[in-house]
Amino acid sequence: MRRTESDVGGRDRGVHRRRRRSRAGVRALVAVLVVTGLTAGGGYAVRRHPDLLASVGVERTVPAAVPDARPSTATAAPSPVPVAGRVPPGISYPARGGGGFRTADTVGAVAGRSGELLRYRVAVEDGIRNVDVERFAREVAATLADRRGWTGDGRWRLQRVGRDEPADFTVLLTTPVTRGELCGDPSDRYTSCRNGDRVVINVARWVYGVPHVPDLDLYRQYLLNHEVGHRLGHGHERCPRAGGPAPVMVQQTLGLHGCTPNAWPLVGGEPLAGPSGQYDDPIPAGDR
């Protein structure tokens, strides 16, 4: 069976759908992570990162210049999905980034009242322009701390940590080509994935969303919860009831199959799941 959205390295090893199998497997990435920090004299102090980012081929990490703040609780109007072929003003990215990552610094509060604690780090690839790493990290943290999310039923607690603290997984916002390399499927520049302790978010989907999910904010929340769900051990699921909300582990990036878009593991305060399995949806060519 062909595989898809998106867990590599766990029980469910789909990388979204492969257009072809890679005979060589996951390409080894050997660049060394260097963490840079401003010194008092205006120069740079250089040090090695102790753990996860070095394993994904990160060359360097630039410390964030913007201090962290708690996410606003104000309700904003949904962001429309951009018209195909158009990037929203101010956001741009190359097909392949520089390979280095800027890592968010601030340690967040523990989200969730009980359950196993997992710590995560957030980083943005060099070359993705006008996406502030600290702001992106706050968006990630707000989604993962939501009561409708994975921490809502008492099974998990999640905490965002900075670049120098031990972490159980890393959320990486990457360019499309880097996504293919980190996910072990260079032919796929469209989807996102989870590969081991990497939760790889393709900036193309973060910017464009998908045509069948008109609310871009909801799609981004789905994207984070789906890929983190793989890190928590969940496999793909199918739509349980036409007209009902899609479980978050349905590959909503590729199709809804009668369900309606849904970003959250909990619906009405209860976990929503569908039959185990996935659909044979094709992956669109390119990254749009």
List the helices and strands and how they pair.
Layout: E1 7-8, E2 34-38, E3 44-48, H1 52-55, E4 101-103, E5 116-125, H2 133-145, E6 156-160, E7 169-174, H3 176-183, E8 193-195, E9 198-202, H4 203-208, H5 216-231, E10 266-267, E11 270-271
Parallel strand pairs: 1-8, 5-6, 5-7, 7-9
Antiparallel strand pairs: 2-3, 4-5, 8-9, 10-11
Pfam family, one: DUF3152
InterPro entries: DUF3152
Transmembrane segments: 26-46
Structure description:
The structure is a single chain. The chain has helices at 52-55, 133-145, 176-183, 203-208, 216-231; strands at 7-8, 34-38, 44-48, 101-103, 116-125, 156-160, 169-174, 193-195, 198-202, 266-267, 270-271. Helices cover 16% and strands 17% of the residues. Helix 2 (133-145) links the parallel strand 5 and strand 6. The chain has 5 helices and 11 strands; from the N terminus they run βββαββαββαββααββ. With 288 residues, it is of the alpha/beta class. It has one domain. Residues 1-13 have a biased composition (Basic and acidic residues). This is DUF3152 domain-containing protein. Residues 87-257 form the DUF3152 domain. The chain crosses the membrane at residues 26-46.
How would you describe this structure in keywords?
two-stranded antiparallel ribbon, globular, single chain, seven-stranded mixed sheet, alpha/beta, transmembrane
Q: What is the mean predicted local confidence, pLDDT? A: 79
Number of strands: 11
Domain count: the total is 1
The rounded Rg comes to 18 Å
Shape: globular
- Give the SSE order as H and E letters: EEEHEEHEEHEEHHEE
Q: Roughly what fraction of the amino acids lie in strands?
A: 15-25%
Indicate the structural class: alpha/beta
Specify the number of helices.
5
User: Which runs of at least 5 residues are low in confidence (pLDDT < 50)?
Assistant: 9-14, 18-77, 83-87
Beginning-to-end CA distance, first to last residue: 25 Å
Please summarize the sheet with the most strands: 7 strands, mixed
Helix content percent band: 10-25%
Pfam families: DUF3152
Keywords: Membrane, Transmembrane, Transmembrane helix
Organism: Micromonospora humi
Protein name: DUF3152 domain-containing protein
